[in-house]
Amino acid sequence: MRQQLNKHVYEFDNLVVGSSLKASRYSYEHAYPILNNRLEYIPFFDSTDLESLKDESLSGQIAADFQLEDSYIPARTLRNYFLSLLSLEGLNMFSDKVNAVRVSDEDLKVVTENSRVYKIRYNNLFLFDDKNIEGVQFAYQTERAPHRVLDWYHLQSASKSDIEKITSQDGTIGEIYFTTSDKHWKSRRLVAVSHLTESEINDSSNLEIYTRYEILNMLEKGGIKGRKNGTNPETGEHYRLSVKIEFEGREIVESNSLLSRTVGNMRFNPDE
Question: Which residues, other chains included, contact 244 with Cβ-Cβ below 8 Å and sequence gap of 6+?
């Protein structure tokens, strides 16, 4: 239940804090208002099986809305879909305008982009994220899962291909994904995904200069060829240039290692 006591004070029975797919889904399924402490980055290649949703009619509606050929949908798309539905119902508090959150036992203070401060009183708080949040003692798993490291490259010189993904179990890089939104093959990009601990991320052997060679090797084994450069007059086979890639940048998608637990009227990373 929502009640606005005055211009800058709100009161709720239940409040969700987080911006992941898990948080937005939890908020929508329970009809609880959500406070986005940040807009969590979700890579374009992450997908979710709609069969995991509790509401079969909702799954069917989503599949129809997005004209899906199977039960899988990009996770980012589904998260944004839930947030849009929550906004329509007036349950998406401050949208993506939150800069900081400070929590106490009975209320929390929200600072927005325009430096305005709001107070939200609650009876039960559901926390899915620890970023931009003060006043809460978070607990983490003893062994934190590796982070996902995304190395982005521009595919400068390569023949056209319909390949969207290459996988490997031989080295540091587990998958390579190719962007599908670019109209022209010459402008396509790829992202190489590694699963590394914090110490491994800082290890010099995992710097871009070394991973580049592993990527080029995976591209060759995966069937990505260089551009044509003439024809062998005897065999008729095409000569080909080497595949060229240009490094654009590295992103780190941190793993969520929050323990699922209940402390007083706060639930951390709840599953149900």
Answer: 156, 157, 158, 226
* 9-21 mean pLDDT: 94
- How far is the C-alpha of 90 from the C-alpha of 33, rounded, in Å? 8
Global pTM?
0.86
Which CATH architecture group holds 2-141+256-268? 3-Layer(bba) Sandwich (3.50)
| 157 backbone dihedrals φ, ψ, rounded to 5° | -140, 110
Q: Tell me the two tokens of residue 144.
A: 């934190």
Domain boundaries, the chain: 2-141+256-268, 147-253
What gap in Å lies between CA 123 and CA 106, rounded to an integer? 7
Question: What pLDDT was estimated at residue 207?
Answer: 81
| Contact indicator for 142, 35 with CB cutoff of 8 Å | no
Token digits of residue 72: 């899988």
Give 250's strand partners: 151
Residue indicated by tokens 């995904």: 193
How many other C-beta atoms lie within 10 A of the C-beta of residue 210? Answer: 12
